[in-house]
């Protein structure tokens, strides 16, 4: 794919969900998308598991002297295992089904199509017809409202493994996102996006042009591979969840898929004991800016914040705790050369952290460093990603089965 050369407005969503209420949170997502569209924003990045909220319930005071004073930010560490079952079952019920898309996902699809906004939406995903959960990012394209794909977090951290299964390499990839040509801010007349890819697969699902020049007929396959013959301007979008951004191999896989925009989705860690005093914010900032430079990509870092409704749910369902307070979160938009285009924004205020990104900046940056080219030294360092899907659910999972991601089963 040629390096894109156009401008567009993007935003990281810094907001709190309606905790443990997927319908109400979905309504909030739809409202945010509508507002973004009215502001001319073309890409929105949502925090980690925004629907139905991150399980940030914490240790009660009776456990506050646990060894080493490490943070106990998950309700699964706070209580005996048998006492956790109702909360975990409730969390599963509040998780969304992405493939085939359930009513919540379809509502977001409709909102994206109506507002002309592409979203990367953090959700707790439940496998259709089952109980397995994944910490996922759903990419929904503005033009069609299609679910381009779902990334499932490869490595849940610590006690997150009580909640979510491990994702596999089949979802470690980028998606080609089309942008309307009539946008006022697309001011590069000499942009050429009709060049043929060099055969390198974007995310392991690439499609080469045949010798006879024929392209695959399915629009979904063209989109998945990055081969877009519609003449649209486009860019490659991928992302990782929270400390998954510490997996250097996962980041390099996205770099080698020719990533242009990265979404780092995070919870509100800075309100948790052990991550306060600026520790969490420093970690998130370091990982965000490091990926911007090493990937030569624009990074949208989106984090939620803890509000009173979340704290009230914890008190009502799991008892009193004195570890987590309101606020937190760290959201920003970062340039490939590490400067801030917007933010960072922290604290308990909902906000769209918005900026204009100029893809024309990618060319000059790659003169200095090209992580998917001369700077990766492929004759010395070799990268391999296992793309096999390990989580196949017959009859219910288009992401794994190869049916179009926007398909809805009757």
From TrEMBL:
Q: From which domain of life does this come?
A: Eukaryota
Q: Where is the composition biased (Acidic residues)?
A: 183-195
| Residue ranges of domain CN hydrolase in the record | 8-359
Specify residue ranges for compositional bias: Basic and acidic residues. 209-231
Active-site residues, Swiss-Prot/TrEMBL? 48
Please name the SUPFAM superfamilies in this protein's record: Carbon-nitrogen hydrolase
**Which InterPro entries does the record associate with it?**
C-N_Hydrolase, C-N_Hydrolase_sf, Nitrilase/CN_hydratase_CS, Nitrilases_CHs
This entry's Gene Ontology molecular function terms read:
hydro-lyase activity; nitrilase activity
Per UniProt, what is one Pfam family of this protein? CN_hydrolase
**Which parts of this chain are annotated as the region Disordered?**
183-231
Q: Which PANTHER family match?
A: CN HYDROLASE DOMAIN-CONTAINING PROTEIN, NITRILASE
> Which protein family is it in?
Belongs to the carbon-nitrogen hydrolase superfamily. Nitrilase family.
This protein is called CN hydrolase domain-containing protein
Query: Which species does this protein come from?
Result: Cytospora leucostoma
